[in-house]
Specification:
The chain is mostly helical. It has a domain of 91 residues. It has four helices and no strands. Helix 2 runs parallel beside helix 4. The chain is elongated and about 80 Å long. The chain starts with 28 loop residues before the first helix and ends with a helix. It comes from Novosphingobium clariflavum. Keywords: Membrane, Transmembrane, Transmembrane helix. This is Iron transporter.
């Protein structure tokens, strides 16, 4: 019988060189069904679950804080392109907005990959303060785009 998508069973695996089918597996099906069985593989530590507070802090960082940080980065980049590099304002805004999609996605990935939530928030706050300060100074010095 051949294996196909309609549920037929694949052929049995070939027997071991000594001819015993059970020698291929470390445990019999009866041993696997037993609740206090011991695995032939080394026992690994269970993954530590994420607490509700940690998850809430990460979700707040992933959505509203990420949006704020991406908005600041977009505005700062548009100002830098327009005033610092001489790109026309419309093209500077479009370029910064296109880049903002990638920035938002990368920051969302970083939020859930960082181990320490405190370091994540410190990084977010410091980055937002630097970009916000630079953007404010840029607006005071040069006005709107």
């Amino acid at each position: 019988m051949r294996s196909d998508r309609f549920g037929s069973r694949p052929p049995a695996p070939p027997a071991d060189p000594d001819g015993s089918q059970g020698a291929r597996f470390a445990m019999t099906p009866a041993e696997m069904a037993h609740p206090d069985r011991t695995s032939p593989l080394p026992r690994q530590k269970a993954a530590k679950g994420i607490s509700r507070g940690n998850l809430a802090a990460r979700l707040i960082a992933a959505i509203p804080a990420n949006y704020l940080l991406t908005s600041l980065a977009t505005a700062a980049l548009a100002r830098l392109l327009a005033q610092g590099l001489g790109v026309p304002p419309v093209e500077a805004s479009e370029s910064a907005t296109l880049l903002s999609f990638a920035v938002f996605a990368v920051l969302a990935i970083v939020v859930f990959s960082v181990r320490s939530i405190a370091r994540l928030w410190i990084g977010f706050v410091l980055t937002a303060a630097v970009m916000g300060g630079w953007l404010w100074l840029s607006l005071e010095a040069g006005g709107r785009l």
